[in-house]
Design a protein that fits this description.
The complex is a heterodimer of chains A (523) and B (313).
Chain A: H1 9-15, H2 17-51, H3 53-68, H4 71-82, H5 86-110, H6 114-122, H7 127-157, H8 170-179, H9 182-207, H10 211-229, E1 244-246, H11 248-252, H12 257-264, E2 271-272, H13 275-283, E3 289-293, H14 297-301, E4 304-306, E5 319-324, H15 325-330, H16 334-339, H17 347-358, H18 364-375, E6 388-394, H19 397-413, E7 417-424, H20 427-435, E8 441-445, H21 446-453, H22 458-464, H23 468-483, E9 485-487, E10 497-502, H24 503-509, H25 514-522
Parallel strand pairs in A: 1-2, 1-3, 6-7
Antiparallel strand pairs in A: 3-10, 4-10, 5-8, 5-9
Helix pairs in contact in A: 1-9, 2-3, 2-5, 2-7, 2-9, 2-10, 3-5, 4-5, 5-7, 6-7, 7-9, 8-9, 18-19, 21-23
Chain B: E1 2-9, E2 18-25, E3 30-34, H1 41-48, E4 56-61, E5 64-65, H2 71-76, E6 78-81, H3 93-97, H4 99-103, H5 108-121, H6 138-150, E7 156-160, H7 168-179, E8 188-193, H8 196-202, E9 205-210, E10 213-218, H9 220-225, H10 230-235, H11 240-247, E11 267-270, H12 275-282, E12 287-291, E13 294-298, H13 300-312
Parallel strand pairs in B: 3-8, 3-9, 6-7, 7-8, 11-12
Antiparallel strand pairs in B: 1-2, 1-4, 4-5, 9-10, 12-13
The chains are: A alpha/beta (523), B alpha/beta (313).
Chain lengths: 523, 313
């Protein structure tokens, strides 16, 4: 059997050069538009607090606290206020850039030799003249250092903007993590690093200018920043009648957006958006079509309906625990304990469980325990002493609930202890951890194993995709052969990819299947 | 003319306060504010150009209360020289000198001409106009600071320890140049120093301060020979003889010097030379001086005798 070679870094950037360029420009624009706003607000604020010394503690304190908010959380806070897309991303980046700019303006001006300031005042300069002729020019190297810091921070944080559909190089990075595609990760990460180095270097040139040139930079800087910011005005995403928002993973997978293009002929220009906010964004009509997963509780919570996949591009995604063979040999009691769950959870049960977690905000632990109690599978923990099993899961509903169930089953039915590493950032991270013996078990999906991990070529995939048992048999065999990892019995539900829309809109547009959607979009 | 009337300035921390000070500086006069550090002399200086505002009393410059003049307008008409020169490090020498003329919107060619003149007067090479302050020596920097203060030809000049940061040799040279500067003769100058020798060399009048109060204000000879109190007397004791000899001119002790002289190989000086100068010339041989058509030989004994007589008169 011929294995399709994994896409390398250079092949990837060759194939995706247009997209790479667009993402780089978006990234640059996003970085500088926020830095520019941060300068426009931070510089006057920094100057103000050199004049009103009492305010300095408060202003620097607030800016410092903003800086300590984890970037992904800050982006999350922005969504209820500003929705998704460009606005919240720019506001979050702006808040990050604020502290270095305010602080360096303040310390730069405070650091000007007091004799020089006194000479300027003593010669009759007004406060404004003192600021423009003496303090700002002399503080400029320090202020520019602050702008450099802010820019470098923002190039980094801007990669997270992809989570909330603001674009940028994060699209490749998160797509690559989700898809187990190192080339794709690097195609985002390397340009992002190069951008940071490049901007840092350019600003350092500006910072180190001497004498007369140094005054010109005062005028040059805003112009350059404006120019770079304007990159963001280049069109990205969405121009059709319906707006689509797809996860980075869906964007890159063969059974995702590329499948929609080739099989259904659907050419939407989707926003790239994080799974975490996608459902709500659809409910709030920021977007119309999303790439959901069929058992996600939020689909039920937000009354989103799955479009029928009438041409079968989404392979079956049956969940099953995957375990290292060596672990199974060391602890023979593990496999029966894990298999206790096999066949117990169908699609609607899984959706209901997810609904309890995603929407009713019950803890995954509570939901897992109640389900096991109801099924008569729950036993109180034996305080295992024989060894420790490390369970992982990916960062979405199914994973958290299943990992908790497995923890309870192992602790209740065997003498093993369990440590959990939950909410890992994607398929690549989970699978690499398992393969490198950092994890012992995590729940995986057959479709993901087939496409993302094994990277099975299209001709083989096509023969398997319609039949869930064939897919399970294929991945079991290949995992055993290639990695020494065993697929245990399927849990029962099929959490496949699904295009979802709001119920009302589907009725209005008379869309039931993906083919209907394709037809509507062609009109 | 500068006039301070019953001026007080108090700070919250109680330091450098000035307590009920009055003095007048006439046009073309150099008034030296002398005292130990913390005595309030710099505070007094800063009250004149309103870097500080007086708590009570009035400060008048050329007959007008400074509180009635906008601070920036007032300051543009007062030259200001600082101890560590306070030159703008990002400006060239020429840009530094033209700061106030620029603020006053002088035409470009007038500014250029003025810079050339000042560079020449202060013995700075024309090509140094485009240097930056850090490329100059300490003495040169201080000259640029002086040129900057004189640039707009202000009637009043305030100097805060202007030569304090220089090494002794340079200080002496810059001081000499300063004293011989023709522009200075028309200006009203207030100079702050803690250096007694500098006060006596430069001051037309000296105002000796201690703990925020004026101890005595007057001509240098008044302070030396007619001290108002023990503080004033004690203040000069360490250098008294040298100061007295520097302050007294040959003409002051002319009557005490014996008649007659020998013609051959004598150094000739005028009677307005100081006794100190005459004494230092004596080490090279006999000295004679002429005053009111008579000529006398000046000897060490004659000078010391003259000094004694002068003090007991």
């Amino acid at each position: 059997m011929r294995m399709e070679p994994k896409t390398g870094f250079f092949e990837f950037i060759q194939q995706e050069s247009g997209k790479l360029l667009q993402q780089t420009l978006t990234h640059t624009g996003l970085t500088f538009i926020s830095v520019l706003i941060a300068i426009a607000i931070g510089l006057p604020l920094g100057i103000l607090i050199t004049r009103r010394r009492k305010l300095s503690g408060i202003v620097l304190g607030i800016a410092g606290v903003l800086q300590t908010i984890p970037s992904i959380a800050l982006l999350g806070f922005m969504i209820p206020l500003l929705g998704i897309g460009v606005k919240p991303a720019i506001v979050a980046l702006f808040l990050y850039a604020l502290l270095p700019i305010i602080r360096n303006t303040y310390t730069g001006i405070r650091g000007v030799d007091p004799t020089v300031t006194e000479a300027a005042i003593g010669m009759g300069m007004s406060d404004r003249q003192l600021l423009l002729k003496v303090q700002l020019p002399l503080a400029m190297p320090v202020i520019l250092a602050g702008i450099r810091t802010a820019t470098v921070i923002n190039v980094g944080v801007a990669t997270l903007a992809a989570y909330i559909a603001a674009g940028g190089l994060g699209e490749f990075i998160f797509g690559g993590i989700a898809l187990n595609n190192t080339g794709m990760i690097l195609a985002g990460a390397i340009p992002a690093a190069l951008l940071a180095i490049l901007f840092d270097w350019l600003l350092s040139l500006l910072q180190n200018m001497k004498g007369k040139q140094s005054r010109q930079r005062l005028y040059a800087l805003p112009l350059i920043l404006l120019l770079l910011s304007s990159f963001y005005l280049l069109p990205i995403g969405n121009s059709g009648p319906l707006k689509a928002g797809f996860t980075p993973e869906f964007m890159g997978r063969r059974d995702g957006n590329p499948g929609l293009r080739t099989v259904y002929g659907i050419h939407v220009n989707p926003l790239v958006i994080s799974d975490m906010i996608m459902y709500k964004a659809a409910y709030e009509k920021h977007i119309d079509i999303i790439s959901g997963s069929s058992t996600d509780g939020r689909g039920k919570a937000f009354d989103l309906v799955v479009l029928q996949d009438d041409k079968h591009i989404f392979p079956p995604y049956y969940a099953a625990p995957i375990v290292n063979n060596t672990v199974l040999e060391n602890y023979p009691e593990l496999e029966p304990a894990l298999n206790l769950l096999a066949g117990t959870i169908n699609d609607s049960i899984m959706t209901a469980l997810n609904y309890q977690v995603d929407y009713l905000k019950y803890s995954p632990e509570k939901v897992a325990r109640e389900f096991l109690l109801q099924k008569g599978l729950f036993k109180s923990a034996r305080n295992g002493s024989k060894g420790t099993i490390r369970i992982g899961c990916k960062i979405f509903g199914d994973g958290y609930i299943l990992a908790n169930m497995y923890k309870m089953l192992i602790e209740g039915h065997t003498d093993l202890a369990v440590s959990t590493k939950l909410g890992l950032g994607g398929t690549k991270i989970c699978f690499d951890a398992l393969n490198n013996n950092q994890l012992d078990v995590y729940p995986e999906y057959t479709g993901t194993g087939l496409l993302a991990i094994l990277q099975t070529p299209a001709n083989i995939t096509d023969t398997l995709i319609a039949n869930k048992d064939k897919v399970y048999a294929y991945v079991s065999r290949e995992f055993e052969k290639q990695y020494g990892i065993k697929w245990l019995k399927p849990i029962g539900f099929n959490n496949t990819y699904a295009l979802m829309m709001r119920r009302q809109q589907m009725a209005d547009l008379q869309i039931k299947s993906i083919s209907d959607l394709a037809l509507y979009l062609k009109k | 003319m500068i006039q301070l009337s019953n001026v007080s300035k108090f700070f919250e921390n109680g330091k450098n306060a000035v307590d009920d000070i009055s003095f007048t500086v006439n046009d073309g006069e150099i008034m030296v504010l002398l005292g130990t550090s913390g005595c309030g002399k710099t505070t007094t200086l800063r009250l004149i150009n309103r870097l500080l505002d007086a708590s009570s009393g009035t400060v008048e410059v050329n007959g007008e209360n400074v509180k009635n003049i906008p601070a920036t307008t007032l300051r543009k008409n007062i030259g200001y020289v600082l101890q560590n020169n306070g030159l703008f490090p990002h400006y060239t020498v020429k840009e530094n000198i033209s700061t106030v003329p620029q603020l006053l919107n002088w035409p470009e060619d007038k500014i250029n001409a003025r810079c050339q003149t000042l560079l020449h007067k202060l013995k700075l090479a024309p090509e140094q106009a485009d240097s930056y302050p850090h490329q100059l020596s300490g003495g040169q920097q201080q000259r640029v600071g002086l040129a900057r203060a004189l640039a707009a030809d202000p009637p009043v000049l305030l100097m805060d320890e202007p030569f304090g940061a220089l090494d002794p040799l340079t200080r002496y040279a810059v001081r000499q140049e300063f004293k011989s500067l023709d522009e200075l003769h028309t200006k009203t100058v207030v100079l702050v120093t803690h250096d007694i020798e500098e006060a006596f060399q430069l001051g037309d009048r000296i105002c000796l301060m201690n703990a925020g109060r004026i101890q005595q204000a007057g001509r240098p000879a008044d302070l030396l020979f007619h001290p108002a109190n023990d503080f004033v007397r004690n203040f000069f004791d360490s250098q008294r003889t040298q100061l007295e000899l520097s302050t007294l001119h040959i003409s002051d002790i002319w009557d005490s010097i014996p008649e007659g002289y020998n013609h051959n190989g004598h150094t000739k000086i005028t009677a307005d030379s100081s006794c100190w100068k005459a004494l230092s010339l004596l080490s090279a041989g006999p000295v004679i001086a002429t005053h009111q058509d008579t000529t006398k030989e000046i000897t060490g004994t004659a000078i010391m005798h003259g000094l004694q007589t002068y003090k007991t008169r």
